[in-house]
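User: Structure please.
Assistant: Input sequence and predicted structure:
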Amino acid sequence: MAFQRARSDEQRGERRRQILDTAAAMLTEMPVAKLSLNELSRRVGLAKSNVLRYFESREAVLLELLDVEARAWLDHLDEVLVTGEGEALVTGEGTVRERGDRLAAVLAASLAARPVLCDLTSAHAGVLEHNVSAEVALEHKRATARIYATQADLILRALPELGTADAYRLAATATLITAAAWPYAQPPPALLAAYAADPDVAAMRMDFTDLLRDTLQVTISGLLARHD
């Protein structure tokens, strides 16, 4: 980055993107809980006080990064539903049950492929929404509403039988199950050793993709059944 101090709106925007990109890179190396503002500042090459000129707290950085990651996921999902494994969903091949099961599988696999998004989602309510101002919280919630609207539209393209209200319910369920299941699917070393030591204990290990897919399949079936 050529400039030392961001003076124009363009330079300030570039500085914000640099901070977000650095935070995203750090989350490929460590969980959200271990990402500190001090280390983020060091890697960006700015004093901590200067980072706080662009984001009011560590949590504000991560909230915006969550929005960025979610939009990138939806862009990817949009492509998947037009090409590749999602093509049969859009063309309407198969029964409603079959298309619902395939939609659940696509949602689960695409989320599992984005560990940074899943980790941020798991920390969302308990960590990221704390230590932020009402202004930041309001902007984030508005961004979240837009993300849910886009996600519901994508779901309806694949399974219009759900209807708008239930497409939103499915989107919310995907978020809640991701938040709950992701930490359990990332066992620490002691648990990995326990799984390795006892096959009965190993059978308790959770597979994130399978759990999310199965839960979404049951949710879709239940939502459709309630229409009757």
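Residues 73 and 114 are 8 Å apart (CA to CA).
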